[in-house]
Fold each of these.
Amino acid sequence: EADIYQTPRYLVIGTGKKITLECSQTMGHDKMYWYQQDPGMELHLIHYSYGVNSTEKGDLSSESTVSRIRTEHFPLTLESARPSHTSQYLCASTGTSGGVGTDTQYFGPGTRLTVL
Amino acid sequence: GDSVTQMEGPVTLSEEAFLTINCTYTATGYPSLFWYVQYPGEGLQLLLKATKADDKGSNKGFEATYRKETTSFHLEKGSVQVSDSAVYFCALSDRGNQGGKLIFGQGTELSVKP
């Protein structure tokens, strides 16, 4: 059973506000990821981290930023929210098992963000 | 680059019908293959996986066989239930990918009617 948590689950906020979406995992996983999910369901990788103090941009450009100060925590921040940021944000993590590249990602329940 | 293509949805079936969701992939290495399921309002859950050619992954009545010759990993279930209604994602992880990143298909929505 995966232990990865996201808060808040739902957030409705006005344009221009700063927000932080929280993601925590208790599995000691070194790699963590943030995805943005379209209303049409497709998943886009926006950030990932290989470990503490490591952050990389994903395949889809995003105005959000992330940090990785502790292994278990990978928050995502939007400095100034806009309606175009309205989406579902999913956090995931994975740890090495059975060799390089054969990792299973475990997902949190997601945060549904609406920017008015 | 590596990619995953799934059949388009939505797929609508009656309860107890046979399900197939097609998935094909393109990869330069020897990927591991996954099926994830997303129920309404939730995150993704791993449904099954296969790590090498001819492996069959199975879970909760769902099965998928890693076919290297046809670069496919089709998801099947013999008798679907209303509770199987969800979005299904096919994904691959290249063994050479040290970042552990997954490449997802676009998702296939399944709706099962009583």
Note: Chain B touches chain A at residues 29, 32, 34, 36, 38, 42-46, 49, 51, 87, 89, 93-102, 104, 106-107, 109 (CB under 8 Å).
Amino acid sequence: KAGVTQTPRYLIKTRGQQVTLSCSPISGHRSVSWYQQTPGQGLQFLFEYFSETQRNKGNFPGRFSGRQFSNSRSEMNVSTLELGDSALYLCASSSGSLDGYTFGSGTRLTVV
Amino acid sequence: GNSVTQMEGPVTLSEEAFLTINCTYTATGYPSLFWYVQYPGEGLQLLLKATKADDKGSNKGFEATYRKETTSFHLEKGSVQVSDSAVYFCALSLQGAQKLVFGQGTRLTINP
């Protein structure tokens, strides 16, 4: 079956702009979560959605937001981009938190 | 709080050597434990998991045993190959938390 699909794979944006990243989970998975990966901070949890509801949120500023659609696809948005937002953004889907998460290949965001 | 500590890398070994990557955790409840692997330019792949004390997860020659008494989940492989070169992440998940908490990752390089 198809894995977790993230688009686009690469993005270059300018400071102050906003960006939207997309994630399509594995068919049947209703939980979608997002992580930011940087060399300095490692992997940090952004938020998790289940059936269009945000159930958990990490410690990120309000510029980071997300949503989930009725087909379980999810988007995350970052507004007023800063240089420090440059990172690999990973999406993961799951059928249950104790079963493990399947990750996509990520979106590499570079802010210049 | 909940946290995961991995042995610092990078780790460099010769092909066919024995591998151990240490992982210890702190958790407020009874977590599920995971090892993920990340190859260059890719997302995370679930390598193995264990959901309760004394469980042994195994996959592709890798093994890890959930040790509640020492709060550890060390990754081992008896004979590593060049293709095992990657970054390895230990992680935990608590029921109801809907997220993974990751260690800082250990970069492994296997020389032929």
Note: The longest strand of chain B covers residues 86-93.
Amino acid sequence: DSGVTQTPKHLITATGQRVTLRCSPRSGDLSVYWYQQSLDQGLQFLIQYYNGEERAKGNILERFSAQQFPDLHSELNLSSLELGDSALYFCASSLSTGGGEKLFFGSGTQLSVL
Amino acid sequence: GENVEQHPSTLSVQEGDSAVIKCTYSDSASNYFPWYKQELGKGPQLIIDIRSNVGEKKDQRIAVTLNKTAKHFSLHITETQPEDSAVYFCAAVPGSARQLTFGSGTQLTVLP
């Protein structure tokens, strides 16, 4: 068990809808990262938050947004969903924000857009 | 930006044999190279990592080597066991960035 909790584990929704994925980092970790994993794109970095502030942005669509709350949990909001958004979404956490930090991943949320 | 290439995409070995997975990276300023193991239905788990000031690191049956000149690093698993079957990802952190860039993954199957 990595100590990172993601909910829900599975999510099935329709095109055009909006969903929210939730992540609780390991106790003491201040950074949260979101990754998207699909069969053809591998693990793609979306966004990083550190202690409530956005720190780095990757290949995140404008339809997607995220935030980190004062209690350090994070939410990833996906709107106007398309079939191609179906993927496994992982949250990871680390103690700080340095590039050489060890990341601890949650078990992921499997999103299916029908 | 950083580009990490990983080979092979699939690898089958007999139990007890060794397995080697190779990765190359493009950014010469990259300085941290972790390896993750992802079992079915789970998130990636860090199994070993190496920093650019070290050429080799070993942890029991797992070892990683780094060749900075050639910009490649490899994962070596000896005496493979069925529980080693999983998808393995290499990654690199570019010198200017904080986030990992992952390779495309290797599905390792250890045949009993």
Note: Chain A has no helices and eleven strands.
